[in-house]
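Follow-up to my earlier ticket, as requested here are the two runs.
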Amino acid sequence: MKIVSLEALIIRIPRNCGGADRLDTLLARVTTDSGLTGWGESQALAAPEVAGAIIHSILKPALKGKEFGGTGLEIETLWDAMYNQMRVSGQTGGFMLDAIAAVDIALWDLAGKIHRAPIAALISGRAAKPRLACYVNYLAGDTLAERLEHAQTCWEAGCRRFKIFHNASERELFECYDALAAICGAENIAVDAQWRLDPKTAAAFGAELDRRGALWLECPFPPQDLAPHAALAARIRTPLAIGESYRTHFEMAPFFRAGAMRIVQPDLGRCGITEALRIARAAERAGMEVVPHLAPALGPLLFATLQFAAATPNCGMMPHRPGLVETAGEYSTSPIAFRNGHYTVPTAPGLGIDVAEPEVRLVEVA
């Protein structure tokens, strides 16, 4: 069969969706001459119109008319072809890769529908995991008391691991950490530093996490700074976790070589399934764990992350953003099964989700 159409839909939902005041996202839809369609989504929180324009102007001409039988090798070849479109112009990251990610996920969804199998089974067969434990990626509330109340609700719903953000003072962070530890245990808390640590004092900060047995320290320094990541990773016991800022295995290769992390966090809305698998394979060779990153999104990106996590042998945990499941469910035709702190991996073909197009069209802005 042939690819006959590639569309980009800019979606804007004016409500709180897993911590964001408004959900802006980009959906991609690939259609074949047989009528089969595949859906994808980009983590396009800023200016999704830009990634949408790239799909229409650059990626659509590169894919339209291509024969497609739904194999992993074909998708890798198409990923390389899309990437090479603007490589000579220096477009090897940013919006270009955001656009490729959405199309890549749509191609994998289409492949699953062609072969009548979920993506995880296409990738890893019977080794695919049927369910995944989660960590809570966001605690709602303007005050510590409100966030702890939310954590208690999540704990009672079966969630056992949590992540908190270093977005104020160190005193406030550790006050939150220790209060949350009374609910879930200190060893079940990860800290996202949001790229704000000072290399001069980071080891002392890490020592506090070591003392508490933290799950990991995420994004300690700006993503382009390799040396401080490697130095800190060698000085503290708490695993460093990075990956959400990088869109290709090319970008991450120096960090692998330097042993600058122990947990790798690809965001499929930025790298797609194909590059996420390449990154995960590099992590496996290096003896590192994979824990995917997930920002506010609709169903295709959430389900793509689930399928990737289920297919990746060195991945045992899935992020969970309360509120996101409910929002994604409103715009899909398939229920999202989340119970007792675990996601059930969908077994329907492809992503395991179909976008509810009438509802999506109501919030499409371009």
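Run two:
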Amino acid sequence: TKLYIVDSEKLLANDLIKIFEKNNYEYENIIKYKKVPNIYISSLPKDLSKISSSKKKSLFIKSLLPLIIKENEKIISLNQRIRLLQSEFNQINRKDAVWLKKTLIEYKTNTMRVEDLLTKVDIIPVSIALAQAAIESGWGTSRFSIEGNALYGQWSWKKGSGIVPKERKKDENYEVKSFLSLGGSVESYMKNLNTHPNYNNFRINRALLRSHNISISGLKLYEYLNAYAADDKYAETLLNVIEKNNLDQFENVSIHFIVTEETLLDLI
């Protein structure tokens, strides 16, 4: 069961606090049980900047956690399907072959080798996904996150696909890509880290951790994302956000399906 927060246009920070309280969604429970409720929030409250810093950060993290975990679960499922086809490669049927080729292209695997595809189809550490969203969106208070659910500041050169930055120069034509939901922003961000040439070292070192059965974590991989921004010290900033907010404690959290029909009816 998935709990949808309805009418998110009118959702205020206090409404979100009450919803989380009703579902026992507190830090203590997350850390103790390594579980989060299956709550889907399509947009952040527009008054997030008006509450205290600690409450703002807490709401931001708890709003994004299920979305990040859910997207990573989708990536894991995709990885498993690819591995299954790889193990049965000599007897693969046409339908699966077409799907595999499409996935190779989708993930910009120029070598068209399944091994290289598997290097790209893997999870993004939760601490990194949270920290980058916090940095790029000002903990959910930036104009781009409020107007376009844009958590990660991704650029687009397609006119009308996003929001024009106020500081954009006259001779530039990029926009900050906007999304129908926060989930769309998380999905696009993860695909970006898994496909863009700038993050090749990130993917190679993630694959090395996998090959040595070492857990994937932001503290082991943050340094390979320095190219994400023009700031030469971006990786240092990323590490600072992870450590200062103890985001590494969310790495191995999963979704707990505890929503009842009564809870859902109460919210609609």
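The only thing I checked on run two: The first helix runs from residue 13 to 22. Let me know what else you need.
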